[in-house]
Amino acid sequence: MPEAEVVIIGAGAAGLSLAHRLARTAPGRRTPSVVLVDAPPGPLRPPRRTWCFWEPGGGRFDAALTSDWRHLRVRPPSGAAVEGDIAPLRYKMIRSDDFEHLVAHDLAGSTAVRRLEATVEAVEDVRGGAHVHLRDPAGRPDVLRARWVFDSRPPGSLPAARTTLLQHFHGWFVRTARPAFDPRTAELMDFRTPQPARGLSFGYLLPVSRDEALVEYTEFSPRPLTASGYEAAVRQYAEEVLRLGELQVLSTETGVIPMTDAPMPRRVGESVFRIGAAGGATRPSTGYTFAGIQRQTSAVAAALRRGRRPVPPPAHPARSRAMDAVLLRTLDSGRTDGPALFSRLFARVPMRQLLLFLDGRTRFHQDLAVGLRAPAGPMLRSALELPLLPRRPFDDGP
């Protein structure tokens, strides 16, 4: 039975991030042996996608960035846009293919991390560790023994919650026939889109040059759209709102991110943990996940190097999660107009401060200052109601 001190299941953002941190030797610190188990090509592999996050100055993965911005814009349904300079922060975009290539290059030079292509069928807690039952691409069964297992695969179902919305989106990477974009400014939320009956929608525009950009349609609502519905929504945004004219679609991306106040279990056995979105790295109010993954995997790697029990920490402070629960309930109940709420926040709170708040990096008095700029009545009613609401399984049916 092959053995490793650490087994990482899944080679998406979380699995690769943890492997990348453990691949690098640290002076005076021990380096555990690691096996990264990646699913064979097929439906079990995560789809290509784009991740965005913000941080000050240079960062760990800058070599793989598609682009970054220090100027952001939010457009309300009507009226003047809100713009802000977020320096010293940078809003960064990284495509999963480029991220994987960067990490793969570094892992190739590491003696600590071994990659294994296999389908994981079960993870079993045993005395002093865990057994990972897997099947290789030829269909042969095997068992891998590990001291610690970190599972980054999406859970089969969401835990019971008081509120669960979905952030679902479809985007085009486009090239226009004429210069149509300002590459210095990213459009974070453009609410000039038709709004759904429940929830909210917005356009998202990340320009990488004068004639190339990611143009995306996003909804926060209970149900995804059909494939034709997404195509129509992006086309309407590109043609009728942005008026881009003739364009070429270079590639597309589609995704669904749960936005839920459900507690996401990070420990599922004596030696088995969940990381990434499965371990609560997604910020419930925004859907951003990449920055939470980096905080979580950094803490896990540090604990492993120190020989401590590597329980993944919460990716977001308890105070932030509590405020997110109130916001989700307010949006889902329809007590406030979503585009008006977000437009109001960005108009009344400096953009840099609001981004720090959305990343859980503000103090209590700063959180309070943001909260006071939200509609008090609907928020207070939702906050008082939450303790009385039962947690229910998420119904993803029609």
Task: Please outline what is shown here.
Its EC number is 5.5.1.19. This protein has 398 residues and is an alpha/beta fold. The chain has helices spanning 13-23, 96-108, 227-241, 290-305, 318-333, 338-348, 351-358, 364-371, 376-385; strands at 3-9, 34-38, 50-56, 65-69, 71-75, 82-85, 89-95, 113-117, 119-126, 129-135, 141-151, 164-176, 185-190, 200-207, 212-221, 247-260, 272-274.
What structural keywords apply?
398 residues; alpha/beta; FAD/NAD(P)-binding domain; D-Amino Acid Oxidase, Chain A, domain 2; 7-stranded mixed sheet; 17 strands; globular
Question: How is the secondary structure organized here?
Answer:
Elements: E1 3-9, H1 13-23, E2 34-38, E3 50-56, E4 65-69, E5 71-75, E6 82-85, E7 89-95, H2 96-108, E8 113-117, E9 119-126, E10 129-135, E11 141-151, E12 164-176, E13 185-190, E14 200-207, E15 212-221, H3 227-241, E16 247-260, E17 272-274, H4 290-305, H5 318-333, H6 338-348, H7 351-358, H8 364-371, H9 376-385
Parallel strand pairs: 1-2, 1-11, 2-8, 5-13, 11-17
Antiparallel strand pairs: 3-7, 4-7, 5-6, 9-10, 10-11, 12-15, 12-16, 13-14, 14-15
Helix pairs in contact: 1-2, 1-4, 5-9
Explain this structure to me?
By secondary structure, the chain is of the alpha/beta class. It has three domains: 3-50 and 96-156 and 261-305, 3-Layer(bba) Sandwich (FAD/NAD(P)-binding domain); 164-260, D-Amino Acid Oxidase, Chain A, domain 2 (2-Layer Sandwich), CATH 3.30.9.10; 318-388. 27% of the residues lie in helices and 31% in strands. The chain contains nine helices and 17 strands. The chain has helices at residues 13-23, 96-108, 227-241, 290-305, 318-333, 338-348, 351-358, 364-371, 376-385; strands spanning 3-9, 34-38, 50-56, 65-69, 71-75, 82-85, 89-95, 113-117, 119-126, 129-135, 141-151, 164-176, 185-190, 200-207, 212-221, 247-260, 272-274. Strands 1, 2, 8, 9, 10, 11 and 17 form a seven-stranded mixed beta sheet that branches. Strand 5 (71-75) and strand 6 form a beta hairpin. Helix 1 (13-23) runs parallel beside helix 2 (96-108), helix 1 (13-23) packs parallel to helix 4 and helix 5 (318-333) crosses helix 9.
